[in-house]
Write a structure and sequence with these properties.
This protein is mainly beta. The chain has a single domain, classed as Deoxyuridine 5'-Triphosphate Nucleotidohydrolase, Chain A (Distorted Sandwich), CATH 2.70.40. The protein is built from 5 helices and 30 strands. The protein is globular, with a radius of gyration of 19 Å.
Length: 323
């Protein structure tokens, strides 16, 4: 869902799992099972069973949820969906869902009840909610200045390892990440129908080195494709990162949520209509850091949450990065 900028995200506070439990308990958010709560987001279920043919766009309704006035949501497809090339365009609160585009040659089927998306939940901090205001609920706030992000690093809330020769890159409050030189393509079998929410097997992806032409990384036109970062992030239970990929038109494409407690590389999944040229030390992903002063109850990897992967999805291809 292209955003010209990140103001919708920046101007609001976003509830931690402490806060999400509270708004569900107080009936400001209904229709959500507490088991859907993650560290800083809620897993969103598909409202219907739908098949997505190659090069097709469908409208996927979200599960039925109700919100109190002044509560906002900021949804995105789960990373597993994006790694297979699927894309979501602008969310429609009125219609309760968003279009999903399949640019690949693979047919997918999403079943009713599948966890196919995730969303931050929050609102403008001074807006009323119940007997108080939005910011009374345990929440995180988006850091929008270089100094704030550097303070997170200095004080140990955020660690960036294996940075490029230019060091840790921060600009206009964005954490900037560079490509690793490896890309991963999802294997396509046009004869099969795949449920994209069930695929957890990294062997489904074919890894190869991006060709290097005098310091430029040449990525061929290929979809679905995923390009891991050179950098490895280590997030404390107080920090989440919302990732964006900047497309050729300068639009910010949502590119995934990194939950508090995560350690590992991250990846962009650009939708390539033409070959892409990257400078190996130039940013291709930017991230907004969200700081939760009170931390979260169950960080990424906790036994209470269904997210135990740490490190890198891609296994041996990035062992040099993690050593």
């Amino acid at each position: 869902m292209p955003y010209k900028d990140t103001r919708f995200l920046d101007y609001r506070v976003w509830f931690s799992d402490f806060g999400l439990e509270q708004v569900i308990l107080e009936d400001h958010l209904t229709g959500v099972d507490p088991q859907q709560i993650q560290a800083a987001t809620i897993d969103v279920l598909a409202g219907e069973t739908k098949r997505i043919e190659p090069l097709q766009t469908i409208f996927m309704p979200l599960q039925k949820m109700s919100f109190s006035e002044n509560i906002d949501i900021f949804p995105d497809l789960r990373s597993r969906m994006r790694r297979l090339g699927l894309r979501a365009t602008a969310f429609s609160p009125e219609d309760g869902g968003f279009p999903i585009y399949n640019p690949s040659g693979q047919t997918y089927q999403i079943n009713e009840g599948d966890r196919f998306a995730q969303t931050y939940i929050g609102g403008l901090p001074d807006n009323p909610l119940g007997d108080g205001i939005i910011s009374d609920i345990p929440h995180g706030r988006v850091l929008t200045t270089n100094d704030e992000v550097r303070r997170m690093i200095k004080e140990g809330f955020l660690s960036v390892r294996n940075a490029s020769n230019k060091g840790v890159l921060i600009e206009d409050g964005y954490l900037l990440l560079t490509p690793s030189g490896v890309m991963h393509m999802a294997k396509v079998d046009p004869r099969s129908v795949m449920n994209p929410t069930n695929n957890k097997d990294s062997s489904f992806y074919k890894a190869q080195t991006i060709s290097n032409d005098n310091g430029k990384l040449r990525v061929p036109r290929q979809s679905p494709i995923s390009i891991p970062s050179r950098e490895v992030l280590q997030l404390s239970p107080h920090v989440a990162v919302q990732l964006f990929f900047i497309d050729s038109n300068g639009n910010f494409q949502l590119d995934g949520v990194v939950d508090p407690g995560y350690t590992g590389d991250v990846a962009a999944q650009p939708q390539l209509h033409d070959a892409l040229s990257l400078n190996k030390d130039d940013p291709y992903i930017c991230g907004r850091v969200i700081y939760f002063e009170g931390g979260v109850k169950h960080p990424y990897g906790s036994k209470e949450r269904d997210n135990h992967h740490q490190g890198t999805l891609w296994g041996s291809s990035n062992e040099l990065i993690l050593s």
